């Protein structure tokens, strides 16, 4: 059967006429009316077309149209549009029992009008959560374990997976289309309108963004695949579905099982490769397009030799922090300049300004290098002996023991580097005869606060 065995040959003639936009909008009115009403009379349809398309009808040129004498006014032109749609096969007009004429829309016509509407109103055809709806349907059917529900869920999963793939394929090629439009744009406003208008509304928000957030493939892919693999593995599940289909539709059980397995394999294999084969290439193409858009805007602004371009260059120059007073004075002679400021979360922060280091008197070094080094070594030793003297180490251990006869290093807080050094020196001084403590050391290293030291236990020596 060919296409024109189903649809009239002159179906698209009204969409190729000079009033094609008017006829297309009239078809959309017909579509909206049949979505809201089970049936609608011809007069009611004429009133709806008249009220919604009044401006379009007044602006249309009907000089070459074969209009009747009673089709000259606004109401008459609305009836003329209905007559043309009937003659070309878009609608049918039939009498009902009440002897009124009612509009009916053939199935093929309804599908074509819906397609035209979707193309015109792409914002309304958002991603319908193919991934989540597939998961939700399969999950419910898997919990119920009803053969009819499982077969229905599997068929819907297959159909939605195909729709998802078709949607992603369309997006992949649409980005290429926008890239080509970008090459042809010569105006910054056009580039911005394409990107932040149609591109974001038709590509990013309805399709790509949901796949990253609420309709996430990585989130739902594994549960979807796990449910279907479970159905494939357990023979009793497959047997129930095969038995149900055989009873309701008939056919060879082996063929039915093969068809069910093919559907499961298709959904599972598609989700396994969806990110690598579709989403990642789309993301890469989207990144390239976004980068190209930014570069195009930058190029058009910098290459603009009009008054606007000159003003942009001038403002860039005036925003330079190193601008001189002389340049500002010259600009002020041409036009008035106003300074505008704002307050944000960083306004109370004042960056510390560095000051140049003043040159002090030079330190004259003695020629006797060895003598100087020896004096420095003696001064350092005196400082260390005063700070970490034997008495200081003994006092550190006594404070650690307190009134106890035994204490572990883990019970002693080591708060700084000086106390850490005291710990090490306490072990070194544990061999002195005048010591008041003994130490036990294990090979195990422990962490005390931020320091790593051996396991040390201090034991108070009993005086004889």
Descriptive report:
The relative contact order is 0.05. This protein is mostly helical. It has 16 helices and six strands. Helix 6 runs antiparallel to helix 7 and helix 7 packs antiparallel against helix 8. The chain has helices at residues 20-36, 42-52, 54-59, 74-87, 107-120, 130-144, 147-184, 188-212, 217-233, 235-249, 253-303, 307-318, 325-332, 369-387, 390-401, 417-428, and strands at residues 40-41, 92-95, 101-104, 406-408, 437-448, 451-460. The model has no long low-confidence stretch (mean pLDDT 82). The strands form two sheets. It has a three-stranded antiparallel sheet. The chain has a three-stranded antiparallel sheet with strand order 4-6-5, with helices on one face. The chain is flat. The chain folds into three domains: 3-120, Arc Repressor Mutant, subunit A, CATH 1.10.10; 127-303, no CATH class; 383-460, no CATH class.
């Amino acid at each position: 059967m060919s296409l024109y065995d189903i649809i009239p040959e002159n179906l698209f003639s009204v969409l190729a006429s000079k009033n094609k936009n008017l006829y297309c909008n009239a078809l959309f009115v017909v579509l909206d009316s049949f979505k809201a009403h089970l049936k609608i009379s011809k007069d009611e349809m004429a009133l709806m077309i008249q009220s919604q398309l009044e401006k379009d009808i007044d602006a249309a040129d009907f000089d070459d149209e074969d209009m009747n004498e009673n089709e000259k006014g606004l109401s008459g032109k609305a009836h003329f549009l209905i007559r043309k749609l009937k003659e070309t096969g878009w609608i049918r007009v039939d009498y009902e029992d009440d002897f009124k004429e009612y509009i009916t829309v053939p199935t093929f016509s309804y599908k074509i009008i819906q397609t035209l509407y979707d193309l015109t109103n792409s914002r309304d055809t958002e991603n319908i959560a193919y991934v989540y709806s597939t998961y939700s349907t399969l999950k419910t059917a898997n919990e119920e374990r009803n053969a009819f529900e499982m077969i229905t869920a599997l068929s819907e999963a297959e159909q939605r997976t195909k729709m998802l793939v078709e949607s992603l394929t369309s997006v992949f090629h649409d980005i290429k289309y926008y890239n080509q439009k970008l090459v042809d744009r010569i105006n910054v406003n056009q580039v911005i309108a394409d990107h932040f208008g149609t591109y974001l509304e038709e590509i990013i928000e309805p399709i790509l963004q949901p796949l990253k957030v609420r309709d996430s493939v990585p989130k739902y892919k594994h549960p979807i695949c796990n449910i279907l693999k479970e159905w494939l593995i357990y023979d009793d599940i497959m047997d129930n579905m095969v038995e149900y289909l055989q009873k309701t539709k008939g056919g060879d059980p082996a063929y039915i099982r093969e068809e069910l397995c093919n559907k499961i394999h298709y959904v599972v294999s598609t989700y396994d490769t969806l990110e690598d084969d579709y989403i990642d290439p789309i993301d890469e193409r989207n990144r390239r397009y976004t980068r190209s858009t930014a570069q195009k805007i930058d190029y058009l602004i910098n290459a603009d030799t009009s008054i606007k371009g000159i003003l942009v260059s001038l403002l860039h120059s005036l925003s330079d922090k190193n601008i001189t007073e002389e340049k500002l004075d010259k600009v002020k002679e041409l036009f008035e300049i106003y300074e505008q400021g704002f307050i944000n979360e960083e306004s109370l922060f004042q960056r510390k300004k560095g000051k140049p280091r003043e040159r002090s008197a030079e330190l004259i070094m003695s020629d006797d290098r060895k003598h100087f080094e020896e004096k420095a070594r003696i001064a350092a030793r005196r400082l260390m002996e005063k700070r970490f003297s034997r008495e200081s180490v003994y006092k550190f251990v006594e404070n650690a023991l307190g009134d106890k006869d035994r204490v572990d290093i883990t019970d002693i807080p080591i708060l700084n580097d000086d106390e850490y050094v005291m710990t090490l020196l306490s072990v070194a001084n544990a061999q002195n005869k005048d010591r008041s403590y003994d130490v036990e050391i294990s090979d195990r290293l422990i962490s005390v606060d931020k320091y790593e030291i051996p396991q040390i236990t201090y034991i108070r020596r009993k005086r004889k």
